[in-house]
């Protein structure tokens, strides 16, 4: 133990990765113990940790004193021994990539010589992400001191700066989709939508990964090899965030975050963040906060049930996880208060709806996939100024306006929040209160973005959500929007244009462009005919 403890007193000169004397001492100690020995050395040349493993490898513990943050490299190099003269292994390179060490080196003895062999590798701004130096006698090694590592980190920064704008303050993300079953096209379509969600949240998308394994990894969802690729790409591109297209369990978020030291969120969390930014009315804010708290509650994790005071009995007495339980209790109390407030708001909406029903004015609700143009259509029909933007979930709050038809006929037309695939259950549950407006509708105006290649999938998604809300029995009028964008498609892709025309006939849909008021005449005539068929 004493020779191992004395290793902490050693210092390494700034211009070398390890001194020759220290390298020989490590090899001698390792051979006498028949175990691998490793040193973690910082850029000041101090030994910060001595590691003793077994004959096959080392276990590197967590390094809370050397967090990565936004740095490209950790500021630690690993110098360790191999007992059989082998070069760096895949496990060594995995540690280099996942921990983002300054460099990693393997020392091994040479029979009949006091000079050990060294095999060294470091991260590099190349497609492979790693530079491997050939195994050589230690005395031939030149450079790889602290100054060389600082220069390497600058090269990585320059490579990053050439590809991204690191000074605009935006989060920079890599998108990931992992599906055990399904087609690649389906995964790509879903990732395209996730990229649009990221753009709505003001996140810059740097790259995307798709993995279709036979079996999902229960700990990290994706395979370890693919996760290493993600870490290297994150290093090369300067990513600060990983966004998974699939919903992650709390344990998976912690595992992936611990391995990559990047912020990790899933599709549900991204949607919740967008809703939190976009909600403006009291209804919307209450619903979003309620959904966020319901999402957060099961993700409050401490030391486990065995340390909880609520468990009782032997081992359950004493302070336990008091702070965690207080947080949980506060969240539950806040959820109860928000649900009560939501009920009060719901009663107010019910009174307003009752007045509209008593007035005998027909009610039309516009439903559809997010970014189909619902708010734009409401503005065009009623000459309103509801907020619109070419983003997913640009508007969350329900808006109702009177629409005057020919011969002094009037209807009330209502805009609702857009639907999306994989809408979080907590969010759908919270917004059921807002979507109560749909229950009193005499007609659902199902707006479809005809210019979207996935418009038929979107129709199915909207109808599935309506069925879940028990609204599938409502009369429905399908309206194909954004037909102004189809003229270019007619020239470029005739087959796609014909497919849209066939779908329009199949759904018995009306074609419009919400940005061109002249195209709305057939829709207005259809609405008049639906409610006043005997009118001239």
TrEMBL record:
Statement: the UniProt record of this protein carries the keyword Translocase: no
Keyword RNA-binding: no
Hflx-type G domain sequence ranges: 362-535
A Pfam family the protein falls into: GTP-bdg_M
Function: GTPase that associates with the 50S ribosomal subunit and may have a role during protein synthesis or ribosome biogenesis.
Protein family: Belongs to the TRAFAC class OBG-HflX-like GTPase superfamily. HflX GTPase family.
Subunit (UniProt): Monomer. Associates with the 50S ribosomal subunit.
Name this polypeptide is given: GTPase HflX
Organism of this sequence: Trichlorobacter ammonificans
Gene: hflX
